[in-house]
């Protein structure tokens, strides 16, 4: 399986990091070794002093697809989830300043949280899913998929032009504003609506 991540897909998040608004979706990959194992804590890596949480709606691909027309994209998934794209922001800044790839800052072990999955049928529209992240019981990030610059079906179509989508692949669809650092002993909880989909302890 592959983890396909979308950057800069929420306008307010672009503004908070002072990034340029992209013409096309920003795409990067994480290996399956980046997945944080269930019931395991997130351990802040020794190479970073500024790891940030980025909560994201996830989509799990259910069938093989390549060059998918957007109007058929909805047939390629039936599960929606929530996760975190942990980012070593200090390392990312160093890499970006030199024009180098982000993988060391984004794809390290444990950098991808994948919570529980929900049926797509639970939602009236996947283009209006409300979600949030709580840190130590305080809301730090919240958003809705209607704020996405590129909606889920558009992302599936776009990504499939470059990568064959396989059963079990997961798409991280981007994070809203409010990203920030995590510290030892933080407790992170992710919700879609009122349903908690993950709980993470930081060490």
Task: Note down, in words, how this protein is organized.
The chain has 203 residues and is mainly beta. It has one domain (3-201): Fumarylacetoacetase-like, C-terminal domain (Fumarylacetoacetate hydrolase, domain 2, Alpha-Beta Complex), CATH 3.90.850. It contains four helices and 13 strands. It has a six-stranded mixed β-sheet with strand order 2-1-10-4-5-7, with helices on one face. The chain has a four-stranded antiparallel β-sheet with strand order 9-8-12-13, with no helix packed on it. It has a three-stranded antiparallel β-sheet with strand order 6-3-11. Strand 12 (187-192) and strand 13 form a beta hairpin. It is globular and about 45 Å long. The chain starts with a strand and ends with a strand. The mean pLDDT is 95.
Main CATH class: Alpha Beta
Q: Strand order of the main beta sheet, please?
A: 2-1-10-4-5-7
Number of spatially distinct domains? 1
Q: Could you name the CATH homologous superfamily?
A: Fumarylacetoacetase-like, C-terminal domain
Please outline what is shown here:
With 203 residues, the chain is mainly β. It is 13% helix and 34% strand.
Lay out the secondary structure.
Layout (H helix, E strand, L loop, with lengths): L2 E5 L3 H6 L9 E5 L20 E3 L1 E7 L15 E9 L1 E2 H9 L5 H4 L5 E8 L10 E6 L2 E7 L7 H8 L10 E3 L7 E2 L5 E6 L2 E7 L2
Parallel strand pairs: 1-10
Antiparallel strand pairs: 1-2, 3-6, 3-11, 4-5, 4-10, 5-7, 8-9, 8-12, 12-13
Keywords:
4 helices; 6-stranded mixed β-sheet; 13% helix; 4-stranded antiparallel β-sheet; 13 strands; mainly beta; Fumarylacetoacetate hydrolase, domain 2; 203 residues; 34% strand
């Amino acid at each position: 399986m592959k983890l396909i991540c979308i950057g800069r897909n929420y306008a307010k998040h672009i503004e908070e990091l002072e990034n340029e608004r992209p013409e096309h979706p920003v795409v990067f990959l994480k290996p399956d070794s980046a997945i944080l194992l269930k019931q395991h804590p997130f351990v802040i890596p020794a190479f970073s002093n500024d790891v940030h949480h980025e909560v994201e709606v996830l989509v799990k691909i259910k069938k093989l697809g390549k060059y998918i027309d957007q109007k058929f994209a909805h047939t390629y998934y039936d599960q929606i989830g929530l996760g975190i794209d942990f980012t070593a922001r200090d390392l990312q800044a160093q890499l970006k300043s030199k024009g180098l790839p982000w993988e060391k800052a984004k794809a390290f072990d444990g950098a991808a949280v994948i919570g529980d999955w929900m049926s797509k049928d639970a939602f009236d529209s996947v283009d209006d899913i409300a979600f949030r992240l709580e840190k130590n019981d305080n809301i730090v990030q919240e958003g809705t998929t209607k704020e996405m610059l590129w909606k889920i079906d558009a992302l599936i179509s776009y990504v499939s032009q470059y990568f064959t989508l396989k059963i079990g692949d997961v798409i991280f669809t981007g994070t809203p504003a409010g990203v920030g650092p995590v510290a030892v002993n933080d407790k992170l909880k992710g919700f879609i609506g009122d349903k908690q989909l993950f709980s993470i302890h930081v060490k």
